[in-house]
Specification:
The protein has eleven helices and twelve strands. It is 38% helix and 15% strand.
Length: 338
């Protein structure tokens, strides 16, 4: 598929009129990998400038949405995702944990709300939930929803009718990441294919639940593969309401441990291109933020990130502490969405 140029340059006076016109058209356009690769290849300052223009057109300039993630069932997953410490076949020191009680989940959600989080995400290490699991999660969703928080769940692949049940319990968002591009996917996962993921996303859409879908960078993929991931996300119809961009957290015992680390500015570029291609989405800094300096996080916000996972743990890996996050947001003059 041939691509026409859709990255107009600013004129000598910095006039961004033509760029803004193109940005409005992009909200409903289809993207090809070559177009997105061209964005990733732009001079860094031009790319960030463009992303910030898009961000301000569709979002408040200095606000961020705060989400908290809890593992409601940990370890023992039969999948072979090369990045995941919860896969049963890898020896990572993660202990299996049975499903938490509804009371424990509500207590954690209440604490997250008190600390400023507006969305509470519940994750479970399954290939896909059984019906008895769905019944338990439905109770959690209803109880968290009763606190006045947005609810999100990530439970693996869903069978027909399961998304509908979750929606009826009050689920606002379902997270199911594509992880990487179709071409690079088999280097990371072999126990499910790309279409399996797309099928679950379709189930979620048909149930009227918002889609939370992103990927992981820093898994040894090329810039071309990162372009392929963004193209897949941006071309979903519609594109996800929430787009988590994860930086690989290397865990000893997983196949991806020891992978060459991604340059931080390449991560910022990925955030910027996600913002440009999915202008209305909430672009979230997710896993890996703990390893980022304050300067890199600030660049990510400048590039259009406007959501973060907030709290001391993401499933089984660390995350910046609440007080540390609050201090950084205060330095940057960024307020949390309420």
């Amino acid at each position: 598929m041939r691509c026409n140029s859709i990255t107009p340059e600013l004129d000598d006076d910095g006039n961004a009129g033509e760029m803004k016109k193109a940005q409005k058209e992009r909200n409903s356009k289809k993207w090809c990998v070559e177009e997105i690769r061209a964005l990733l290849d732009r001079p860094f300052n031009d790319l960030i400038f463009q992303a910030q223009h898009v961000h301000r057109e569709f979002h408040a300039a200095n606000t961020v949405q705060l989400s908290t993630l809890i593992s409601v069932k940990t370890g023992g997953c039969p999948e072979d995702c090369g990045y995941c410490p919860q896969a049963a076949r890898y020896h990572t020191g993660v202990e299996n944990q049975a499903m938490l009680s509804v009371e424990s989940v509500v207590s954690a959600a209440s604490a997250a709300k008190e600390q400023g989080a507006t969305r509470f995400c519940m994750g479970a290490a399954w290939r896909g939930p059984k019906q008895r699991d769905i019944e338990n999660v439905k109770q959690m969703i209803s109880a968290v929803k009763a606190l006045g928080m947005e609810t999100c769940a990530t439970l693996g692949m869903l069978k027909q009718g399961q998304a509908q049940q979750l929606g009826e319990a009050g689920l606002d968002y379902y997270n199911h990441n594509l992880d990487t591009s179709p071409d690079y996917y088999e280097a990371i996962i072999t126990t499910r294919d790309y279409q399996d993921r797309l099928n679950t996303l379709q189930e979620v859409r048909e149930a009227g639940i918002n889609v939370c879908c992103g990927g992981i960078v820093g898994m040894g993929e090329t810039r071309e593969a990162r372009a392929g991931l963004i193209a897949q996300l941006a071309n979903l119809d519609p594109y996800p309401e929430s787009v988590p961009i994860n930086h690989l957290v290397q865990v000893e015992g997983t196949p991806l441990y020891g992978t060459a680390k991604l340059d931080p500015l390449e991560f910022v570029r990925t955030i910027a291109v996600a913002r440009i291609t999915m202008p209305k989405a909430m672009v979230r800094l997710s896993a890996g933020r703990r390893e980022m300096s304050e300067a890199v996080q600030a660049l990510c916000f400048l590039a259009g990130a406007n959501s973060i996972f907030y709290g001391d743990k993401l499933l089984t890996t660390g995350n910046p502490e609440v007080q540390q996050d609050q201090a950084l947001l205060n330095k940057l003059g960024i307020e949390s969405l309420t």
